[in-house]
Amino acid sequence: MINIILFGPPGSGKGTQSEKLIEKYSFKHISTGDLLRSEIAAKTALGIEAKSFMDKGQLVPDEVVIGMISSVLDANPHAKGFLFDGFPRTKAQSEALDKLLANKHTEINIVLALHVNEDELVKRLLNRGLTSGRSDDVNEEIIRARIIEYENKTMPVADYYNQFNKVVTIKGEGTIEEIFSSLCKEIDKKF
Ligand code: AMP
């Protein structure tokens, strides 16, 4: 089993690259952002709680997302591997994920960290907001809040996996194909 974290700030291209990676390698894609948006669309209690944080550009509480991940892992016992996109986003989520995977006798093999400068991130997100239908992409203040949450709470995830030498940084600027090719090269090198 191969388990990969696609890591990076909002707007670094995780969603776009995930789509291409799952097509090529047949991983099970787990995007907590997509899962949360489905809960919001279905107007579940979890979705209603999550929306109040997402609308402000803040992270949803750890226990909410960890519970969701646990259910998805249990529901996919025969997956060839998981591609985590937008998760883990805090050190506590990383530790919880490692425990959940250890219970299934597996682990995170590699963390692919996309690097994009901040001005480019804001530009991409505002541009995405024109078509994505995502309210958190339209307002620059919310976008900046998401980037600050990333710097304060999510960057420590890279430090956490760095202690196990699992992080590989990838330049997240260039064409979609160039970035995809860099990601594939690292995955193929590892396996
Ligand atoms: P994304 O689609 O990954 O950009 O996520 C959109 C929003 O969903 C984020 O700004 C957070 O409010 C929330 N979210 C997604 N994944 C997580 C996570 N792992 N932990 C906490 N909040 C999350």
Number of structural domains: 1
Total of DSSP H or I helical runs spanning 4+ residues: 8
Q: What is the radius of gyration computed over CA atoms, rounded to a whole number of angstroms?
A: 16 Å
**CATH architecture name:** 3-Layer(aba) Sandwich
Mean pLDDT: 97
Largest pleated sheet? 5 strands, parallel
Beta-strand content bin: 5-15%
The CATH topology is given as Rossmann fold
Taken from the alpha-carbon principal axes, the silhouette is globular
Tally the beta strands.
5
Which sequence of SSEs, written as H and E, runs from N to C?
Answer: EHEHHHEHEHHEH
What's the end-to-end separation, in Å? 10 Å
Task: Give the low-confidence spans.
Answer: none
Structural class: alpha/beta
Q: Would you kindly provide a written description of the structure presented here, covering whatever features stand out?
A:
By secondary structure, the protein is of the alpha/beta class. It has one domain: Rossmann fold (3-Layer(aba) Sandwich), CATH 3.40.50. Helices cover 59% and strands 14% of the residues. It contains 8 helices and 5 strands; from the N terminus they run βαβαααβαβααβα. The protein has helices spanning 14-25, 32-41, 45-54, 62-75, 91-103, 118-132, 140-162, 176-190, and strands spanning 2-7, 28-31, 81-85, 110-115, 167-171. The protein has a 5-stranded parallel sheet. The radius of gyration is 16 Å and the shape is globular. The model has no long low-confidence stretch (mean pLDDT 97). Bound molecules: adenosine monophosphate. Adenosine monophosphate is lined by residues 10, 32-33, 36, 53-54, 57-60, 65, 86-87, 89, 93, 136, 146.
